[in-house]
């Protein structure tokens, strides 16, 4: 089992020196925003692109938009709901993905949470009007998902992760996309968005080209392209949210696309918010073995070799500055290394301070269920690897303070 291989003993965390986000690779100290934006930020972004997540090998714009369903009386009259299909075409390739959008009826141009869901848009609510995706999905027989197909049996099974009414009542929209429609979550680079960019007889991305996380991030950017055209949405206030592997995705989307107003990483762990050099819980070697398609092939150079990394995940968070970022952990989720997630937020803070923003000032993790709410925010809650009402309550409160 994965857990048996993991280190959960703080005394066995190797000694390491974290790179300073405000010192360039050639040793120059960064003293102001201009130097950060002209020198340090570009070299960090380039390193993460080439060695972690991979380059997007071209540009592809939305070919067409189809409004396939709409209601002014969703959520018992509280919300305007629409289901929008974004279509992409290139050569002989076509790809469609559906965005489910709920908007508060009492807000003219709503700020909005944009996110992926794991099992199809129909799972976030019992609403019978939500279209069931026909895309590939990993089997979950307990939810009626067999032969890699979603069925009516899974409608509403993730309601507990998505308090849609609470979000709408707080004055926010929510837009969700089934991530498997953008790129199926399997080690097969011949489907999803990847083949659109292959040349000649290419069947795999090059070693420095995008894995699935970068592909999913790309899909969020195209969703934002659409939202910028939607008169009901304030596209300058779109908060990108993700849990677990999709928390990694949200961080990378926020780092690479500065149009996102804020970023939320929920239990994102290794390759997300957690420091790699701690080798606590899931490690680079483990994630590359279990999910070889998530990152670019160059990331495998750092399997069991974290000590040679000239960066760490606090610098990924720093790439989001000066926009607000929230890192959240769960007490029982040791696989994702809550302490490593906290330390990333802490050690990213100096970059936010360059901009006059407040981050994490205390060196010790806060007690459970006592969030630190600033431009860089953090909480650890009781419970396991999941998304809970408690998490959303903090995210909404934080968004009220720093985005709305």
From TrEMBL:
Keyword Signal: yes
Keyword Signal carried by entry: yes
One of the Pfam families matching this protein, by short name: GCE_fung
Alphabetic keyword roster: Hydrolase, Serine esterase, Signal
Residues annotated as domain 4-O-methyl-glucuronoyl methylesterase-like: 190-356
Domain of life of the native organism: Bacteria
Cross-referenced InterPro entries: AB_hydrolase_fold (IPR029058), GCE-like_dom (IPR054579)
Gene3D superfamilies: alpha/beta hydrolase
GO MF annotations, alphabetized: carboxylic ester hydrolase activity
The name this protein goes by in its record: Acetylxylan esterase
Organism: Maribellus luteus
């Amino acid at each position: 089992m994965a857990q048996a291989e993991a280190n959960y003993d703080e005394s066995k965390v190797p000694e390491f020196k974290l790179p300073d986000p405000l010192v360039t690779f050639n040793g120059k100290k960064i003293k102001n925003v201009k130097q950060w934006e002209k020198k340090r930020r570009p070299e960090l972004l380039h390193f993460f692109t080439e060695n972690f997540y991979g380059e997007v090998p071209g540009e592809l714009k939305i070919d067409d938009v189809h409004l396939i369903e709409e209601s002014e009386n969703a959520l018992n009259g509280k919300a305007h709901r629409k289901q929008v299909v974004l279509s992409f075409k290139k050569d002989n390739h076509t790809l469609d993905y559906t965005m489910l959008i709920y908007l508060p009826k009492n807000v003219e141009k709503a700020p909005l949470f944009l996110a992926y869901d794991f099992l199809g848009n129909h799972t976030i609510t019992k609403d019978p009007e939500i279209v069931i995706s026909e895309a590939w999905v990993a089997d979950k027989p307990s939810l009626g998902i067999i032969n890699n197909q979603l069925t009516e049996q899974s409608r509403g099974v993730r309601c507990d992760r998505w308090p849609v009414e609470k979000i709408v009542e707080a004055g926010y929209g929510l837009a969700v996309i089934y991530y498997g429609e953008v790129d199926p979550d399997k080690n097969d680079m011949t489907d999803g968005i990847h083949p659109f960019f292959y040349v000649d007889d290419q069947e795999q991305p090059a070693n420095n080209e995008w894995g699935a996380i970068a592909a999913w991030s790309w899909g969020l950017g195209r969703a934002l392209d659409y939202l910028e055209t939607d008169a009901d949405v304030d596209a300058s206030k779109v908060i990108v949210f993700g849990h677990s592997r999709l928390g990694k995705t949200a961080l990378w989307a926020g780092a690479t696309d500065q149009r996102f107003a804020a970023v939320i990483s929920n239990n994102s762990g290794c390759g997300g918010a957690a420091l790699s050099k701690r080798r606590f819980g899931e490690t680079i070697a483990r994630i590359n073995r279990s999910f070889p398609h998530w990152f670019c092939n160059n990331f495998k150079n750092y399997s069991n070799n974290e000590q040679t990394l000239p960066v760490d995940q606090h610098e990924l968070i720093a790439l989001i500055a000066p926009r607000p970022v929230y890192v959240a952990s769960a007490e029982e989720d040791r696989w994702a290394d809550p302490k490593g997630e906290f330390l990333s937020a802490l050690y990213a803070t100096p970059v936010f301070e360059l901009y006059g923003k407040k981050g994490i000032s205390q060196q010790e993790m806060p007690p459970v269920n006592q969030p630190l709410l600033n431009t860089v925010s953090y909480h650890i809650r009781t419970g396991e690897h999941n998304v809970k009402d408690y998490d959303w309550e903090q995210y909404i409160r934080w968004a009220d303070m720093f985005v709305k």
